[in-house]
Amino acid sequence: WSIFDKAEYLDSTFQNCDCPTIKVDGSYFGHVDNAHNTFNGMSNLIEIYNPSFDKIIKANGMFDGCRNLKHIDTSFDHLRAADSMFKNCSSLEKIDTSYFGDVETASEIFYNCNSLKEIIDFSFFRYCDNLSFAFAHCNNLQQIDGSCFHSVTNATCMCMGTPITSFDSSCCNLVKSANDMFRDCKNLKYIDLSNFKSISDASNMFKNCTNLDSISLDIFSSSALDDNAFNSTNREIEDAFFALKNKIKDVDLFDME
Question: CB count, 10 Å around CB of 173?
Answer without folding.
Answer: 17
